[in-house]
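Page 42, continued from yesterday. The earlier attempt failed because a stray header line got pasted into the input along with the sequence. Redoing it now with the clean sequence only.
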Amino acid sequence: MRLAIVSPCFNEEAVLAASAARLTELFDNLVSKEKISSDSFELFVNDGSNDATWSVISDLHDKNHYIKGLNLSHNVGHQNAIMAGMMTAKDLADVVITMDADLQDDLNAVEQMIDAYNEGNDIVYGVKVSRTADPILKRISAMAFYKLQSSMGVECIYNHADFRLMSKKALNMLSCYHEKNLYLRALIPQIGLKSTTVEDTISERTAGKSKYTLGKMLNLALDGITSFSVKPIYCIVYTGMIIVLLGFLGIVVDVIIAITSGLNVPGWVSIMLSMWLIGGLLMLSIGAIGVYIGKMYKEVKARPLYHISDFLE
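This time it went through. Structure tokens are written below.
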């Protein structure tokens, strides 16, 4: 069985040498156990880095027969870079595992994934069981991220990011999806093939800093929710109905006050609050609808997700 590990890289020059050494040790170990063939490989995908990432990948490719490199013509984002790597590797390997280049995911879980594949699973998800190596803010935001997705009806594996194994069969099915707004964590479970999970203990980065900032996580959450759920639209509709109901109640209260006390002059506070509330709701409504229209605009354009500049085989 030929294994390919796909790792997207954006400004990861600081970690690549150490990561390549650890992956080489992993490949040698799995080959010695006859769990993978000796022509298995690691595919580093350079996602338009502006440091020496591609130069390091090229140098590693020249010195290490396990290392291959894919150079994208410009930065296309984490999800698209993973897709580029998977679609390239699916024609060269029997199974593909995706994991970040910093190797914070548990390398010991790779062998467990292969065993699960040999037991008949076409997709194996790495599920985080410990995030002590992550900063406290990232842990809190990640937990909120998964709960928000679930509440909005987005079906995905809890505490699973992008560390997973996919068979050639699963990858060929994935290639039939032509979405431009990629959110692989929710898209891949829709394939429906037999799957299972393995535990993934996160470790600290050996060098460099995480490129997944809080802002990027929020954008990813927004993309995931709006790509797989229309609940935000329904939430706005329900909120509008509640405000209309409150408005009617306000009219009834004003009429009662006017009749009982003779006061018929509306207060400035209630007027201003109503204006701000309704104005904010309208802005929110227009914004939510705009997001969905923007996504349709991208899908209709049908532009390529990425362009490959160089491929080091």
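Notes: The CA atoms of residues 11 and 49 lie 5 Å apart.
Reminder to self: strip header lines before submitting.
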